[in-house]
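Hey, sorry to bother you again with one of my protein questions. A protein chain has come my way and I'm curious about its shape. It would help a lot if you went through both lines with me. I owe you a coffee for this, so here goes:
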Amino acid sequence: MFENNEENRNEYEYHYNYQPTQPVPPTTPPIDVQPKQPSKKRRWPRIAAIVLCASLALSITFGAGWCLNGRIGEGKNSNAQITVSDRQPVEVQTVSVTGSKKLTYEEIYDANVDSCVSIDVVSSAGYNFFGQPVMNSSSGSGFIITDTGYIVTNYHVIDGGETAQVTLNNGTTYDAQIVGGDSDYDVAVLKIEPQDGETFKPVVIDASGSLVVGDEIMTIGNPLGELTFSLSDGRVSCLDREINLDGTPFNMIQITAPINHGNSGGPLFDLYGEVVGIVTAKSGNSSGDTSVEGLGFAIPIEDVMDLITDIMENGQVTSHAWLGIKGTDVARYPNTGVSAGAYIAEVTENGPAEAAGLQEGDVITMLGTTQISSFTDLQSAVGSKSYRAGDTATVTYVRDGKVYTTELTFGSTTDMPEEEQETQQDQETRSKNTRQPVGEDSSYNGNMEDFLNRFFGYGF
């Protein structure tokens, strides 16, 4: 059908080019093709968009914080300003205590703090197992009563003390001499010597007994023995409150000022800046975990001023009453026909009882208006602070079945014969060793005294 197949094949044959397996060297040098860099004109819109988004985010954040702050602290100053007062501190004017003008607490403190002292006492507590001396230290408060350096404190602050040091408000410390004291009234006197001609600043005493319940009072002392020259204030809550302090009755000023260990011996001031008492005890009776607070006591200064002067002049109290007899309970002598009273076993020669006409074998049944049922009753009546040396009392006694009375003028315990003084000191030591803490029952002490009186008798 097709005559020229070759021709026809050439006419319809598809031709294509292919590269040989070996590349053909280029006839021209190769061109280095670099990546195409974006145009600067296209970068600015992208940067502008980023800045706009960041600004919008910050605006939203601050706006939300402002709204939240406005809701939480609505009404507050959005600028958080602190207002500082421009008031200048008030300077306390130094005043003198005259007794005619009431003072502020600041003025009372300023006028008296240099007259107040802290007291540190070292006493012997015996010896340890190795024979070495054991020393105890205690602390208290006090106040200067004369410009020559006499200081008043409590007797129990210096009781048993071998050495004492006194520190003033300015930090100066002095070695102090223990002049003397009286355990019955819990009062003692120390003495410090001025240095380089200095004089001390004494307090002003109000011995008039002018306090009334409700009066404001304050004290300066050293609570805990560490917080030196601290001021405490309160009110008088009771006057002539009779309490039993270590077995000795006291008529105290009861106050609401906080009184702690270390305050003992410090001054009690009225609003005139005068000393009206000596802080001496704190009631801390406890029941379980409940403690009684707000009960402080002070010795009325008018009750002990004569004793303080006596100690300063004589080194001891010379006004304690002395009866001048030895005796026991009349129950040991049924032949007297008297069931109750104090039997006189011995009368001291030239003593007050002999001068009043009392004799051995007499039975005292009344002293003044006090009924005497035992020798202990007589001791308590004479030592009750109701009588002092030089006072006169009516003594009712029984002799040979008849009742008599006589007037007796008390002598001073300093006039007692030496053997009687030793007997009384032994008695006081035994009594002190059996004393009970404040507020606790001390009936055991009385029973022991009855026992000793019954078998041995005491002289006083």
User: Anything to note?
Assistant: The chain has nine helices and 23 strands. Residues 1-16, 284-290, 429-459 have pLDDT under 50 and may be disordered.
